[in-house]
Amino acid sequence: SDCAIGIHDLSCATTEFVLPHATLAGHNGTEIGKYHVGIGQQSMSVPAADEDVVTMGAAAAAPIVARHGADRIRTVVFATESSIDQAKSAGVYVHSLLGLPSATRVVELKQACYGGTAALQFAIGLVLRDRRQQVLVVASDISKYDLDSPGESTQGAAAVAMLVAADPALVRIEEPSGLFTVDVMDFWRPNYRDAALVDGEESITVYLQAVESAWKDYTEQGGRSLDEFTAFCYHQPFTKMAYKAHRHLLNTCGYDTDESRIGRAVERTTAYNRVIGNSYTASAYLGLAALLDQADDLAGRPVGFLSYGSGSVAEFFAGTVAPGYREHLRTSAHREAIDRRRTLDYAAYRELHERSLPTDGGDHPVPQQTTGAFRLAALRGHKRIYERR
Ligand code: CAA
Is the distance from the beta carbon of residue 187 to the nearest atom of ligand 1 less than 6 Å? Predict the structure, then answer.
């Protein structure tokens, strides 16, 4: 349609290192089936000492700027729940590393894993107001829980960058949205901690309640019927959650919940999350990338999105895949970002996990570990110094 607005380009990045779940299981004695089948995770991305949400976000966004230029980008929205500063937006560092024009507005958004969807929806609103402008959305996160806690197996890290524009080449985002908010403490991270706190069982219960409630609102707002959707991109704290969520949605709507039907709807969206782990704000859009990057042709097909952010806020909405979308994918770059990761042994993983940056405001170089394009090079006078190589 004339007013189609949505995702014009989509690019994913992850970390230097990876920890296989087999290694974690070897340390803690967990039967590996619990990880591979029970939660549906194979491995998790682990950031190097000189990687954070800025370096991953810049790595995801750089190919988009290289392809489209920055002339029409008037806004950068950075979504994260792993923020590095209470005041300054991580997006300003990315804006600087990518050499974006000074005539840009930049802001950071937060509501747990829902922040990426908030950024996407706000970007659509801006493009609706001025159809010539493009908005760069960056969703970047590090999922970190305490060592030897139940959450440890659901860690991970990644960034997704999306260029939001009129007449998008990949996915047209539709009205309406189904919305849901409830004040709960299922997962949170106080300012003095770098690892999240979580009530695992409660978080799954609230997630499923949010799926049901957001869908109910979507239906009341006049949305599509469930049968029309080809696939569903759920927020994936671990890939098994997408199956749980879809089973719950089918149940809610009074459908059969046979496993092959659920598999057809969600399996293709899990390929990247299964080996990267939880990437919070980026997770549902890594699901979209995995879906689009698979072989069959989705042109014209509606895809459902369910974004969930603990605390909690959820949104269900639809997108239609654009004709000719396959020419604009980054399938080989995504594969490369996953395959190039270096495998950690348990001791090296533990050392990275226990490491924290000095807080004395002194002059500290950060050990060079990443071979990626962007790195955190030093701390100096309470400031972070980044480098593009
Ligand atoms: N073979 C196959 N399956 C096995 C198995 C084996 N040997 N052993 C156990 N399992 C299965 C269990 O049956 C269970 O499956 P079901 O839930 O389908 O029954 C699954 O493996 C997990 O087992 P447990 O529930 O016993 O695992 P746990 O107590 O270690 O907790 C967890 C799992 C709650 C996900 C925990 O890892 C956690 O707290 N993670 C962080 C919180 C989280 O990710 N919550 C998700 C919803 S909140 C959200 O989505 C926002 C966000 O990003 C955080």
Answer: yes
> Is position 253 annotated as part of the catalytic site?
no
Determine the atom of ligand 1 nearest the C-alpha atom of 310.
51
Q: List helix spans (H) across the chain.
A: 21-28, 32-33, 53-68, 90-97, 115-129, 200-220, 240-252, 259-266, 271-276, 283-293, 331-339, 346-354
Q: Is the CB of 154 under 6 A from ligand 1?
A: yes
Active site annotation includes 81: yes
The values of phi and psi at residue 172, to 5°, are: -90, 120
pLDDT score of 296: 86
Whose CA is closest to 365, among 346, 388, 384, 341? 384
pLDDT in tens, 12-69: 999 999 999 999 999 999 999 999 999 999 999 999 999 999 999 999 999 999 999 9
The predicted pLDDT at position 21 comes to 98
pTM across the whole model: 0.98
| Omega prior to 307 cis, within 30 of 0 | no
For the chain, state the CA radius of gyration: 20
Catalytic residue at 364?
no
Determine which one of 95, 235, 334, 353 is catalytic: 235
Ligand 1 centroid – CA 297 distance (Å): 33
Q: Is 237 in the pocket of ligand 1 (CB under 6 A)?
A: yes
The ipTM is 0.99
Residue 1 has pLDDT above 60, yes or no: no
Q: Which atom of ligand 1 is nearest to the CA of 240?
A: 18
Please pick, among 8, 12, 21, 81, the residue that the annotation labels catalytic.
Answer: 81
Which tokens belong to 223? Answer: 């949305």
Other C-beta atoms closer than 10 Å to the C-beta of 120 total 26
